[in-house]
Amino acid sequence: MKSPFYLTKEEMKSYGYKIVDIIVDHYKEEEKKKPVIKASREEMDSLFLSEAPDDATDANEVLDFVVNNVLPNSNISTHPKSFSFVPGPSNFISTMADSLATGFNIFSGGWIVSPAAAELEIVTLNWLLKMFHFPVTKGGGIFTSGGSMANLTALTTARRVKCGDDFSKGIIYLSDQAHSSNIKAIQVLGFKKEQIKIIPTDSEFKFSMNKLKNEIARDQLEGKKPFCIIASAGTTNTGTVDPLDDLADICEKENLWFHIDGAYGAAAILSKKGSRILRGIERADSLTVDPHKWFFQPYEIGCLLVKDASWLSNTFSEKPEYLRDIEGNESEINFYDYGIQLTRRFRALKFYMSIKTYGLNAFKKAITYNIDLADKTEDILRKSKNWEIVSPATLAIINFRYNPLNKDLTEEEVDTLNQEISTRVVDSREAFLVTTVLQNQVVIRMCLINPKTTLKHVTDTLDQCEGFAKQILLDWKK
């Protein structure tokens, strides 16, 4: 009896070639497409809602349906005018590497199942350890689905190392600009609301050091157990990097775990300017890095690095009977002992193949270009009578608002104006550009980590914003 999923060699090749052609055409034609899609639940239901079919449908018919209905109804995060959240520029080599890993269905949890997958994870993690000046021999890490899982893994480890089994008095400190995934991780770990201390940031959106020191001292006097500080190496809102050296000094003095969430900005260490801004990152106990952001990898690949690999294995290693034959020796790492997942996809392959193919210099060049592009954008905005910088270009993120000098607009009017500008840009589908809130002001946020984004893409979008702004102000007069 043939497998119910049987296809001939010719059928598989024809189908596979068709998909590769679709992906290549997308890479070559994406700039001609619009980066934004807007659709309601009702519209999506009308396209897709159906019962699971009992009988077969021709494979090419299903593929054509997906190409015509699924792909066009997804934002293009790789588009050069996708400026919002954190774009996902990706690269073709990694895309094909993911196809290989999926095609061979490689299990990347234990050494005995795939020694090559485990070895490549060790090798690529060592590359990252060296980049961030972590100890390679003693240090370690694990690839995760993204920054959220990396932060959860780090904080689980910190809790065990610093608190043991009783964390009822444990206190964690983070700034009001820290990524929401950290709060989610803390809550998942069972900490109460009063054990989470959110410290206000200063005028530059960095940890307020005096307020942090006051809070730690107060908690100690009250018999609580401060055990962890979470710093940001590139906040999502502004790209800001906390004073890492100063925070490391506090952690060393008070015996606190120092976790740095560098999911967004840590990759900037490959540029000269970024390396200066990230000074002190090497002093972390644990560091989150997100290769599917500024290392140009397709989703999903996050990463956690630690100074001592035994912290991970001592936290997560379990020895159920069904795994007793595959423990191996200490050098043959089973990555299911380093994190939460037992079943793990082969994430290291795309990182390995892209670095080997393009070389680190290509990544350094791309990141440096992104930072310079944001600086040039800031220069343009500062020379305009219409734009106001709220948070300057930092690690390729800049925040600004339309607030013309010749108009006497109230704060409420400026907020409404910028929100409407963003809404109209997104509705036009020409660019993905949304707002955030800084210092109680609605601002337009631009994230410029796509190496395919040119200064013209930026200026065309700013011109579009100005056109909408003028029309809105005219409408207000009527």
Report on the architecture of this protein.
There is one protein chain. This protein has helices spanning 9-29, 41-48, 59-69, 92-103, 115-131, 147-163, 180-188, 209-221, 244-254, 272-277, 291-294, 309-316, 348-358, 360-382, 411-428, 455-477; strands at residues 140-144, 170-175, 196-199, 225-232, 257-262, 286-289, 302-306, 387-394, 397-402, 435-438, 441-447. The longest helix is centred in the last third of the chain and has 23 residues, at 360-382. Helix 5 (115-131) packs across helix 13 (348-358) and helix 15 (411-428) crosses helix 16. With 478 residues, the chain is of the alpha/beta class. It has 16 helices and eleven strands. Helices cover 44% and strands 13% of the residues.
Brief overview:
The chain has 478 residues and is an alpha/beta fold. 44% of the residues lie in helices and 13% in strands.
What general form does the structure show? Answer: globular
**How many individual helices?**
16
Tell me what portion of residues adopts beta-strand conformation.
5-15%
**Residue runs with pLDDT of under 50 for 5 or more positions:** none
N-to-C CA distance: 76 Å
Structural class: alpha/beta
Q: Give the integer mean of the pLDDT values.
A: 96
Any idea what the radius of gyration is?
A: 24 Å
Major sheet size, sense and barrel closure: 7 strands, mixed
Q: Give me the strand/helix succession.
A: HHHHHEHEHEHEHEHEHEHHHEEHEEH
Helix content: 40-55%
Tally the beta strands: 11
Task: Identify the strand order in the major beta sheet.
Answer: 1-7-6-5-4-2-3
